[in-house]
Amino acid sequence: MAPLRGWGPSGRRLQASAPFGHWETMTFIAALRHDQISAPWVIDGLINGELFTLYVEKVLAPTLAGRHPRQSRQSQGQGRP
After folding, report:
1. Which domain of life is it from (predicted)?
2. Considering the domain boundaries, does residue 30 fall inside one?
3. Which of 5, 11, 59, 65 is deepest in the core (most CB within 10 A)?
4. Is the pTM of this model over 0.90?
């Protein structure tokens, strides 16, 4: 984004140029756990309810299917000795 204000000679209007680009929005969504990021997903554009539902069904749910939320890491054999 270009700044709206700047420094210039007192009493004179500031003449400056600013780059204009074509901004594209990308959305990143993921499941954040205490020890890792799971099920990352990046889409071009904004997310809506339909895309979020697709993310939950196709990306997030399969990641969480094999792990009970209250299961400890030690009970899975991944804990520290």
Report:
1. Bacteria
2. yes
3. 59
4. no
